[in-house]
Amino acid sequence: MEFLVRQQNNMPPMAAEEEARIKSAEREYAQQLRDRGILRRLWRVPGTRTAVGWYEAGDVTELHDVLSNLPTFQWQTITVEALATHPQEKLLAAADSSTAATA
Question: Which CATH class, in words, describes the domain spanning 2-102?
Fold first, then answer.
């Protein structure tokens, strides 16, 4: 299943060393999610502390487990939207596969 995840970071002020440690752990965990094919894309919303991500997980429970293990989870406001394939995308995929078969 694919999900659009909006994560607003509300991390409070803290000692610079602690903040750097947490941010480093967050980057490392995000790379692990990318390597596992769960975190597909990540965007920053300009002028905010919000990120929008495209995640792929087996189900909502797996996604919840992934998100709740984020090092910054306790400071995040997270919204999740499950994504369904649009009929237009199905038509494009069918056209792409028939073109590949004839090539």
Answer: alpha beta
